[in-house]
Specification:
The chain is of the alpha/beta class. It is built from 14 helices and 17 strands. Helices cover 36% and strands 27% of the residues.
C-alpha cells in the first residue's frame, strides 16, 4: 500500500497531446501510483477557453496559467508549444523548485541553456523526451544510456509530415503539391505546413539532438536548414533510377579537421541508398540512426508524432520526475562541457547529385568536367542521355564542401552549353 504524499501535477495546454495526457493519467492511475511510489494527482489544467474542453473534468480547468504554476504543485507539464508564454511559465516553475516536463521543441532549441540554469539553481528536474520523435525513446538513451560512449553521428527522419509527402511521391510518382494536398486531407499536414515542409520543425529537433549527443550548446540558429518544396517528381524518379530514395534528413556530426573538432548540424533533403535502414521508413513514421565509438550503429524507430504517442513520452517523463520527488533523487543535468564550435555549412563536406540540361554535342562533358576540376570537386559518376536537340547530364560527386559545390554549380550554370541546372541534391548514406 502506498502512503507517500501525492505528487501534484499542473498541465499547461489541453490540445491533442494534453487530452491524451489526461486520459493516461486517469486510466493508468493505479499503475502509475505503483510505479512512482506515490499517487500522481492532476490538480489543474491551464487552457485559453474553458468551454472547449468537455472531454476533461470542468473543475480542473483554468485560464490563469500563471496562478496555476504558482499554486501548491510539484510538477508542471507543458504541452502548449511555442516560445511565449511557455518560456515565462516554465522559468517561474523552475525558479520555484518545481520540476518541469515539456514537449516544446521550439523552446528547447532556443532557450534550453536558460531553462537548465534555472533547474540547476533550484534543484528541480527538466525532462523533455517528447520534444523529439514522439514516443520513440531517443533522448534518454543519448542523455543516459550512451553517457559513457562517444557519439560521432546522429542521422534521422524526425518529421512525419515531410516523410509522408516524400514517401507518397516515391510510391506514386505524384508531384510535391499533389502529395501535400493529400497529406492535408488526411490530417498529416497542418493548415499552414510551413514549419514542417520548410524544415523549421526538424531544425529545432536537430539542435536538441546535437546538444545532447556532443555535449555542446546548439540552437536552431546554428542548424543549416532546407525544406522539401523544391523536390520534384523528376528528382524522385532520378533517385529511383540510381537505386536511391529521397528523405528529409536531420544530420548531426562530430567533425575533425586538422586536429580540431567541431559540430556540423544540418537539415535538408538527400538521396540515400534503398539499402540504408532509413530508406524503409515510410509514411508518418520517424527513425534516427545513431553511431557511437563503442556501441556501434543503432536505429530508433516508431511513431514520431500524434496525440497518444507523444503523450506516452510525456507521461514517461512524468513518472521519472515523480520518482525523483518521492526518493529524493535528481535527473540528469545539462552536459555542455565540450563546448565545440559549430561548423558552417560552407565547410561541411557532402556528396552531391547534379542534374543538368545541356546541348547534345561533342565536348560538352569535357567543358563541364573542367569546371569541376577547377573547383577541386571530384566526379564519382556520370550519366548522359541524349535527345533531339539537348541532353540530360547527371553527375555524382565525391565528398566536397558546400562552398566549393556552390561555386562549381554557379559557374556551370553560365556555360553556353548548359541550358539549365535542373536540380542539386545531397547524397548521404554512402562511402565518399
Amino acid at each position: 500500500m502506498v502512503d507517500a504524499k501525492p505528487i501534484k501535477v499542473a498541465l499547461l495546454g489541453c490540445g491533442t497531446v494534453g487530452t491524451e495526457v489526461v486520459r493516461l493519467l486517469t486510466d493508468q492511475a493505479a499503475d502509475l501510483t505503483a510505479r512512482v511510489g506515490a499517487p500522481v494527482v492532476l490538480t489543474g489544467i491551464a487552457v485559453r477557453k474553458t468551454n472547449r474542453h468537455r472531454e476533461v473534468p470542468e473543475e480542473l480547468l483554468t485560464t490563469d496559467a500563471a496562478a496555476l504554476v504558482a499554486s501548491d504543485i510539484d510538477v508542471v507539464v507543458e504541452v502548449i508549444g511555442g516560445i511565449e508564454p511557455a518560456r515565462t511559465l516554465l522559468l517561474a516553475a523552475l525558479n520555484a523548485g518545481k520540476s518541469v516536463v515539456t514537449a516544446n521543441k521550439a523552446l528547447l532549441a532556443e532557450h534550453s541553456a536558460e531553462l537548465f540554469e534555472a533547474a540547476d539553481a533550484s534543484g528541480a528536474d527538466l525532462y523533455f523526451e517528447a520534444a523529439v520523435a514522439g514516443a520513440i525513446p531517443l533522448l534518454r538513451p543519448l542523455r543516459e544510456s550512451l553517457a559513457g560512449d562517444r557519439i560521432t553521428r546522429v542521422m534521422g527522419i524526425v518529421n512525419g509530415t515531410t516523410n509522408f509527402i516524400l514517401s507518397g511521391m516515391d510510391a506514386t510518382g505524384a508531384s510535391y503539391s499533389e502529395t501535400l494536398e493529400e497529406a492535408s486531407r488526411l490530417g498529416y499536414a497542418e493548415a499552414d505546413p510551413t514549419a514542417d515542409v520548410d524544415g523549421y520543425d526538424a531544425a529545432s529537433k536537430a539542435a536538441i539532438l546535437a546538444s545532447l549527443a556532443f555535449h555542446t550548446r546548439v540552437t536552431a540558429a546554428d542548424v543549416h536548414r532546407e525544406g522539401i518544396a523544391s523536390v520534384s517528381a523528376s528528382d524522385i524518379a532520378a533517385a529511383r533510377g540510381l537505386g536511391r530514395t529521397v528523405k528529409l534528413l536531420c544530420i548531426c556530426e562530430r567533425v575533425s579537421h586538422n586536429g580540431v573538432e567541431s559540430v556540423a548540424v544540418r537539415v535538408h533533403p538527400a538521396m540515400i541508398p534503398r539499402s540504408h535502414p532509413l530508406a524503409g521508413v515510410n509514411g508518418a513514421f520517424n527513425a534516427v540512426f545513431v553511431e557511437a565509438d563503442a556501441a556501434g550503429e543503432m536505429m530508433f524507430y516508431g511513431q514520431g508524432a500524434g496525440g497518444a504517442p507523444t503523450a506516452s513520452a510525456v507521461v514517461g517523463d512524468l513518472v521519472a520526475v515523480a520518482r525523483n520527488r518521492v526518493l529524493g533523487g535528481r535527473g540528469p543535468r545539462e552536459s555542455a562541457y565540450a563546448g565545440l564550435p559549430v561548423r558552417p555549412i560552407g565547410q561541411t563536406p557532402t556528396r552531391y547529385h547534379i542534374s543538368l540540361d545541356v546541348a547534345d554535342r561533342a565536348g560538352v562533358l569535357a567543358q563541364v568536367a573542367a569546371v569541376f576540376a577547377e573547383h577541386d570537386v571530384s566526379i564519382a559518376a556520370v550519366r548522359q542521355e541524349g535527345r533531339v536537340e539537348d541532353a540530360s547530364l547527371v553527375i555524382i560527386t565525391h565528398a566536397a564542401s558546400d562552398a566549393a559545390l556552390r561555386s562549381t554549380v554557379d559557374k556551370i550554370g553560365g556555360l553556353p552549353v548548359v541550358r539549365a541546372v535542373v536540380s542539386v541534391m545531397r547524397v548521404e548514406g554512402e562511402e565518399s
